[in-house]
């Protein structure tokens, strides 16, 4: 069933009329999820729609990425505009705003029982990217039909592989940001209810680091531990000690996370393991922690191993930097969002998460804003968290996303 818009979302009739099509696109993509750089069916859907509308585009960017370009036909006004007051940046004669949507799914077995559940075993859109594509397509359709009102250009970036290994950097390297003055993007967000928008200037999402560590001891018989160096005992002490890094090295007002998600060791109950393998993630907002946290992590591992007569090998990787929003573009999005969700109470101005996103690479290159669009509806059991096998969202949010994108484009390219 396709739901109508609730009264707390102000969406213009022309975009409300797109709602059935938005739902259809989203569900078509949801049924056939694809991993990063393998989004061929999703790519074909996007290309077919852009071709049908006559929107210029380039496909095959960073393998499965697509960039559509909508050039406005209106002439720029010499008078001061709302955009000048909302976005105090250098104002080009023909401003270019980029809108980004990600394409890929996750290696998760879906547990939902719906007529649009995943038809691909072991794969699922468990994070809302199918909705992001639908919103971007709806935005493209509306702006193309109303390009006579735009005195600028909109570039819509359909990006592969956000969940990994990362499609933003190769798209940037391919030149998708050439000539772009600002960029915006959204994430459907089940941590917020339908009818809300979460955004903030500055750090919105955390930097993401990953690490793998192997602890090497000396194996032996479980009844003769004095002849061994127990890799499991050493690794367990490492796990516990790593938790002191945030607790005793960071300012209590500063955020950081060190989490071990994988611990593998041993082959038999009566054999002391000679090796244990740990894998984990480190999250933080402040760029200065990009050096401090890995240094302290290795110091802790080295110290514990040395005290127990073990050795180690550590592979530490910086994956995504923090998502840092530009104040002026954040204000642009806030002004647009307030007209859609109608009241200040529906804006969550200091929303943050330790989750990560490679939208951060775009924001390092040009001013921009990434924001959360509330999509949870507990009354319909649509509030499972992201990356959960029962994740789903209230599709009413799709039209709201299009409306916010359109209003940002209309203001920026006024």
Could you explain how this protein is built, in words?
- The chain is α/β, with parallel strands linked by helices and 414 residues long.
- Helices cover 33% and strands 25% of the residues.
- It has helices spanning 13-16, 19-31, 40-53, 82-86, 129-145, 168-173, 231-249, 289-308, 327-341, 359-365, 397-412, and strands at residues 57-61, 65-71, 96-102, 153-159, 182-193, 197-198, 202-205, 207-216, 220-221, 256-265, 271-272, 275-284, 311-320, 323-325, 347-348, 368-376.
- Strands 1-2-4-3-5-16-6-15 form an eight-stranded mixed sheet. A four-stranded antiparallel sheet has the order 10-12-8-13, with helices on one face.
- A hairpin with a 3-residue loop joins strand 1 (57-61) and strand 2.
- Helix 2 packs antiparallel against helix 5 (129-145).
- The longest helix is centred in the C-terminal third of the chain and has 20 residues, at 289-308.
- Residues 78-82 have low confidence and may be disordered.
